[in-house]
Design goal:
- The protein is mainly α and 592 residues long.
- It folds into 2 domains: 47-465, Amino acid/polyamine transporter I, CATH 1.20.1740.10; 471-498 and 520-591, no CATH class.
- Helices cover 66% and strands 1% of the residues.
- The protein is built from 24 helices and 3 strands.
- It has helices at residues 2-18, 21-40, 47-64, 74-101, 108-115, 118-150, 158-169, 178-205, 208-211, 226-229, 255-281, 299-306, 310-313, 318-322, 324-341, 350-369, 375-403, 416-436, 443-461, 471-502, 506-517, 538-546, 571-577, 587-591; strands at residues 551-553, 565-566, 582-584.
- A 3-stranded antiparallel sheet has the order 2-1-3, with helices on one face.
- Helix 6 crosses helix 7 (158-169) and helix 8 packs parallel to helix 11 (255-281).
- It is globular and about 80 Å long.
- The two termini are 47 Å apart.
- The model is unreliable at 1-39 and 502-592 (pLDDT under 50).
- This is Aste57867_24036 protein.
């Protein structure tokens, strides 16, 4: 017994002989810090943090971009805002229900992949990614314009403003740290405080008769520009649908429990602020007719209410413009991470994903700054990408309601399928307007077509032969399959019980059960019928392969066979197959 103790003492003394005393001190201090961080765990954002981040997605558009819709007239703009409010309300309710049932942090490409197919899902994911990058570009260029409007001498140094905003966006690469959430809370509280004082100033200065433009400005040119300028009203609410992308950044909280109620509360906040901003904006200087040509919405009213210069008043919109930067950066990195986990794009570290999102935005901002690109082109293209993402969310919600009603969900949309259909129609009309009704020589249409064509070619040449189901996708698909199997088993037991009572033998009962299961539109295992349009999607593919007892999914997708299924034999096979290898336990065994 003494020999092992002596040996341990000698080893300890040997190590102490080679390690200096100050190194012991550093190790002990580091251990203290590590222990403290481990005890704390990941930061779980509060309801205020989540609400402020969701509002930050839309507050920039409310203070900066929507007045272009006033070019069609005040009444025409009011109707456009009402239509967009209805559409975004139905959209947010739909996305909240999807998140409460099957939370997926990969954004819209995961929904498109499960409802429209693999190739359309990849194309829509690329378009969504372009939209988030363009949102970063808009924030960078707008912040530079606001600062140079207040101090014209800063015009040559405007690229430094973009670099500072890129550094601010780097906060989001930490994965949802306390600083990330506090930045959004601070910026959103400041922006909403400015909006509050802007609305309070209207109590003494508001006059729709003087600043509204009169009856001649209700419908400019008898509504000739209504369809052309209709999509710009979406800037009051654009970006709210991207809120579920923050699911990986909320620490240990359950996204299906935390995100949907916060999403809805942020939507109600944005609706209230949009209503106040619109009616105050057409009642204060510079007036409804001049507002489409100004840099900010709040500048004229703040200057008149607080007796400051208009150049100084433009700075009050700076927090609203900057608030979009960190959350948009997180959206870019999370979409790239999710697509990388499915091998749709090369997987990379968080900093590489940050660089992939930051540098293209800087490139587009430089092109706009040096007059290579028109700012309206960036605005229109960004809106098109948001509309495509919103329509995909609506289709995913309709698919969930039609074919996955049995899935449990914490929140149900009060508007149901009609709300999603209304949103689908409104966003479809707005997309057509941006693509074919603008006086831009179809540049936006050509750009969207080029992005879609390039993504399609890349998919069929590269992605199609190496894509997989990520672990997050498999978990969600397995959850859906298990629920469907449980419901199907209950229905089968009920049917077999009634057949046993009516038929004398068990053999005839089983034969009748087999005949019932082989009806057109039903699988052998009693699964609910699959829609013909979606029969080749990942939902049906997973349902077919998960009906096996204990199988292993390699996840590799080939043109001939969507997913290869092979029996698991040894531990070495599991090791060779990589992290995407997943052993599925059948529902019957899982229940035991």
């Amino acid at each position: 017994m003494a020999a092992p103790a002596r040996r341990q003492t000698m080893v300890s003394h040997h190590h102490n002989h080679h390690i200096p005393h100050h190194h012991h001190r550093r190790v002990s201090l580091a251990a203290l810090f590590v222990k403290d961080d481990t005890h704390r765990g990941p930061y779980i954002p509060s309801t205020l943090d989540l609400w402020a981040t969701a509002v930050a997605l839309a507050v920039g558009g409310q203070c900066l971009y929507w007045p272009a819709a006033l070019g069609a007239g005040t009444a025409s703009c009011a109707l456009a805002l009402a239509a967009m409010a209805l559409a975004h309300t139905g959209l947010v309710y739909s996305v909240a229900e999807i998140t409460s049932a099957l939370p997926f942090h990969g954004g819209v490409f995961g929904h498109a992949r499960c409802t429209l197919g693999f190739c359309p899902g990849f194309v829509i994911g690329c378009i969504d990614l372009v939209g988030h990058v363009l949102r970063l570009t808009l924030a960078q260029t707008t912040a530079g314009h606001l600062l140079t409007a207040a101090w014209p001498s800063l015009r040559p140094f405007e690229p430094l403003v973009w670099a500072a905003l890129v550094a601010l966006g780097a906060v989001g690469t930490g994965g949802g740290s306390r600083l990330f959430w506090r930045i959004h809370v601070t910026l959103v509280v400041v922006a909403l405080t400015v909006v509050f004082f802007y609305c309070m100033g209207a109590l003494t200065l508001a006059s729709v008769v003087d600043y509204g433009g009169g009856t001649a400005n209700l419908f400019v040119d008898r509504g000739a520009h209504a369809v052309t300028l209709f999509p710009h009203a979406a800037w009051m609410y654009a970006g709210l649908d991207a809120f579920p992308l923050l699911a990986p950044n909320i620490g240990g909280a359950n996204p299906s429990r935390v995100l949907p109620p916060t999403h809805v509360s942020a939507m109600l906040t944005v609706l209230a602020t949009s209503l106040c901003i619109f009616f105050v904006a057409i009642s204060l200087p510079p007036g409804a007719m001049a507002l489409p040509h100004t840099l900010t919405v709040l500048g004229g009213g703040i200057a008149a209410s607080f007796n400051v210069s208009e150049h100084t008043a433009t700075l009050v919109s700076l927090p609203a413009a900057v608030a979009t930067v960190p959350v948009s950066t997180v959206a870019v990195t999370n979409v790239l991470a999710a697509m990388g986990s499915s091998r749709l794009v090369p997987s990379s570290s968080s900093w590489k994903r940050f660089v992939l999102g930051a540098f293209p935005s800087l490139g587009v901002a430089s092109a706009v700054h040096f007059a290579t690109l028109s700012p309206s082109f960036v605005l229109h293209l960004c809106l098109v990408t948001r509309f495509v993402a919103a329509m995909t969310h609506c289709l995913a919600f309709l698919h969930l309601r039609l074919y996955h009603r049995v899935l449990p969900r914490r929140r149900v949309s009060p508007w149901g399928a009609p709300g999603a259909i209304i949103a689908l129609v409104v966003f479809g009309v707005a997309t057509v307007s941006l693509l074919v009704c603008q006086d831009d020589n179809f540049v936006v249409l050509s750009t969207v077509a080029a992005v879609g064509l390039a993504a399609t070619v890349y998919y069929h040449t590269v992605v199609k032969h190496c894509q997989v189901f990520s672990q997050a996708e498999l978990q969600l698909l397995l959850t859906a399959h298990v629920v469907h199997r449980q419901i199907a088993n209950k229905r089968t037991r009920r049917a077999s019980g009634s057949i046993k009572q009516s038929l004398p033998t068990r053999r005839s009962s089983s034969s009748m059960s087999v005949k019932r299961s082989r009806k057109p539109g039903h699988s052998i295992h009693g699964m609910p019928p699959l829609p013909p349009l979606l029969s080749k999607t990942s939902w049906s593919s997973f349902s077919r392969l998960a009906a096996a007892t204990t199988t292993t999914i390699s996840g590799r997708i080939t043109p001939q066979r969507v997913i290869q299924v092979k029996k698991s034999k040894t531990h070495e096979e599991h090791t060779k197959s990589g992290p995407e290898l997943l052993t599925i336990i059948p529902p019957a065994k899982a229940g035991r």
